[in-house]
Amino acid sequence: MKKVLLLAYKDLRSDARSKEIVPAMAVFSLCLTFLFSITLPDGAGRAPLPVPVAGAASVRELAGTYLWVSIFFASIIGFGRTAASDSQGSRIEGLLLTTVDPAQIFFGRVAANFVFLCLVEVALMPFFILFLSVPASLLWPELLLIALLTNAGLAATGSLFGAASQFARAKDLVLPLLMFPIMLPVVLGASRLTSQLMSFGSVGPEARWFILIGVFDIVLLGIGAVTYEFVVQE
Amino acid sequence: MKSARLTPLALLASAAMLAGVFAIFFVMPDAEPPHGIVYRIIFIHVPSAWIAYLAFAVVLVGSIAHLRNGSKKMDWLAHASAEVGVLFTAICLVTGMVWAKPLWGAFWVWEPRLTLTFVLLLIYLGYLVFRAMGGDQERTSRIAAVIGITGFATIPLIHFAVDWYRGHHPGRAVIRPGGDFQLEPEMVATLFAMVAVFTVLYATLLALRIRLAGTAAQLEALR
Question: Per CB distance under 8 Å, which residues of A are interface residues toward B?
Fold first, then answer.
């Protein structure tokens, strides 16, 4: 555990020193949130609930999807970058020569990516609330749990496939292709939970998504721990 | 010599497919309206879906075996099975769309099973794209195996996700795929026979593709 924390600290410091990952991810997700909100009808966020027109999706339902799609895209950019910096200068190869277990390197990377996502979300949240006229009081504290679970799943998948994509010729193309279909349960779950929260103030019957995302996190962390060594091995 | 061994399998697959198609069009009676003649597509659609799942399970087995002992043959098996699986997933989706149009009124609806099949197609297309873009052969095979394992492991989760996500959709109530459609015993027998025929076809394509991979590897070694 201590080694994992140390590795995570190393990853955080080296990536923070380059000063490009979190700002780029945050600005990118902000751009997407801006684009999504500007394309909505005027004042749509304050639309009365339930939706007056049967069959029409409420804007608050869409807002949950917009939030997580923005973060998902930003995560693809960020994780591609962190994986690229890992593969530059043979950092991982160097670590593999020490007594560190590949699974520990993986967990360290996941922890660092997890922190980056949390920082991006903290930066994005005020704009999300502002642009989409989301009632902030409805979000607390369930959104924190949604974010923590979702970030874990995104970080686990991104760390595994980020490392995997580094050995393909067109790295930046491969990562989203690999990540998107696999991440579907988490992105669908997070957006449904968030939409529910914003429409009704509680997750209610949709709470089962927490279990699904939690199981996803465990499965991906498990697969990553076992298979990371095959991905980074020379 | 190897081709001589494969010829009987290929002949068997062709003969069985011909017999199957004959049975579908000339032996099977029309169904009750609105299924009419369109229902015949299930004899292609259902076996394709079965082969898709079988093929992706084989990818999983080949991937695990490759990671355990580094066997090249297992890697070829996984790669070949992914290619054949993607082909049959596409056939399954297209035949499903053709069937959906008269029955549901649209070629595409976000019905959970359809969505899951589409996501499967995306996962294994990504797998094939990665293999096509890989650099070092050994490493590409290893990483592809990891992708094959992860892809298959998430299928149950994706299944629940797409089912729950669209579960409350009002469209769901009118869409009951196959729910109101009873098959006659002879249709069920034909369906099972077609599943067997498709399995032989799958085995043939798989064997041919693995042989091709072997030849490609030999050629690479000679260079």
Answer: 55, 160-161, 164-165, 167-170, 173-174, 177-178, 180-182, 184-185, 188-189, 192, 208-209, 212, 215-216, 219-220, 223, 227, 230-231, 233-234
Structural domain for A177, as ranges: 2-38+55-232
Q: Where are the beta strands (DSSP E) in chain A?
A: none
Q: Count CB neighbours of A4 within 10 A.
A: 19
Q: Is residue A49 part of a domain?
A: no
Residue A190 maps to a domain = yes
Number of Cβ within a 10 Å radius of residue A75:
28
Chain B residue numbers with beta carbons less than 8 Å from the beta carbon of A165 are 130
Asked if residue A44 belongs to a domain, the reply is no
Task: Quote the CA–CA distance of A4 and A12 in Å, as a whole number.
Answer: 12
In-domain check, residue A45: no
Question: What ipTM did this prediction achieve?
Answer: 0.85
| 8 A C-beta contact, residue A119 and residue A82 | no
Q: B133–A227: do the CB atoms touch at under 8 Å? A: no
Q: Pick from A182, A185, A215: which is nearest to B123 by CB? A: A182
Distances (CA, A) of B174 to B109, B115, B163, B166, B180: 11, 17, 15, 13, 11
Provide the residue-wise pLDDT of chain B in tens; the chain has 223 residues: 455 577 888 888 888 888 888 888 888 777 666 667 777 888 899 999 999 999 999 999 999 999 999 889 999 999 999 999 999 999 999 998 888 888 778 888 887 888 889 999 999 999 999 999 877 888 889 999 999 999 999 998 988 888 888 754 444 434 444 445 567 777 888 888 899 999 999 999 999 999 999 998 899 889 8
Among all residues of chain B, which has the CA nearest to that of A233?
A: B139
pLDDT for res A183: 92
Q: What letter does residue A56 receive in the DSSP assignment?
A: P
CA distance A39 to chain B (A): 24
Q: Give the pLDDT confidence of A102-150 residue by residue, as tens digits.
A: 899 999 999 999 999 999 999 998 888 888 777 777 777 888 999 999 9
Domains of chain A: total: 1
- Residues of A within 8 A of B140 (CB-CB) are 167-168
Q: Is there a contact between B119 and A181 if contact means CB atoms under 8 Å apart?
A: yes
Chain A CB contacts of B74 below 8 Å: none
Burial of B72 (0-12, 13-18, 19+ CB in 10 A): middle
